[in-house]
């Protein structure tokens, strides 16, 4: 580099991921082979969002600035030969959004250093990126524990002849998940036509909207599960599970140019029937115990109110005149038991099923309910070697742990490394303990398990009381 042998920015404790409201501090190191005349030495910290309409283009059509601060390390003068260190510190605004990298836009944070020299001399500059993570707490999203459900009815037309209708219903167990959790999906297909339907497909979808003059929508399939079709006149139920891979969070709070949405798309190939189930992907998982206790407290308070109301009503009616008591009726003669079996109060075993059509709550003579087998799982749009995954890459919530032996290609990853996401939009990288520079987020998505070759998961059989009630 000539006179300038070293010109480098370092962050304290080699920290690279920060939270909004934190301060970022570090040192600018300069090593000179000989003295250098300079007009000023400055360090700048800024964060902004830029979007475009071309893939991976940096000629931004729209920009949004979050903060831009500059401090002067030295004024006009001569920098002597040798090593020089200039400490710096910046405060990150609490309103800054999470870092993001997509095909049509980015949210970028960086620290830059400049050495301005006199006229006709070479200026020097360097920069170092850092990453911001604003946690999305799913417990703060309203109605997050309620299932996301939808239903649609479509006319089945075969060879231009209407043969009946098909009713598709689907729901997920919740509306919010964190990476590593499982989406429990249930779909019900009622084929009221004379032809068999095509296969049923459930897909986890990501939709990123870039707000230019003409908004750009980047829609991609994250995971996909396919089930068999339903025969004519049949009603079938399909239960499937989808593992949520490492993904950027649903909301970029503080950014008005980029919007991230997730939903589950359930569709039939024939006839063409499709519905969507909106969901949220966050960083802090749901605390079901807290939600359950709050609901229990609400129900207890309502029960107390009802008890108070009924007690007041009882007090009022007690003052009204009562009718004279009537003689008690004579007991009816007890019929003699016909057999020893009929004298039992309750059966000693579940009753036998008289009608095959009664299984699944269907009446005799109606369509029989059956289970749809799963044909395939797939993870789309991913290539490249498997990267080592940090166990903390999935969720911030305590208690959610994963095996730490996820290693490949002989790489040794730090299990306490920073959280990361994949090329579907996140910029928080994953790097090894010995690496000082972030590696690109090229980790492929995690394939869901193939449940066809395994006895897991299996639900426990229903209890005796549940069988009787059904």
TrEMBL record:
TM ranges: none
Biased composition annotated in UniProt, kind: Low complexity = 297-321
- Gene Ontology terms: biological process: nervous system development; protein transport
Q: Give all residue intervals belonging to the Arrestin C-terminal-like domain.
A: 162-286
| One Pfam family here | Arrestin_C
Q: Which family does it belong to?
A: Belongs to the arrestin family.
| UniProt name for this protein | Arrestin domain containing 1a
Identify the species of origin: Myripristis murdjan (pinecone soldierfish)
Q: Which gene encodes it?
A: arrdc1a
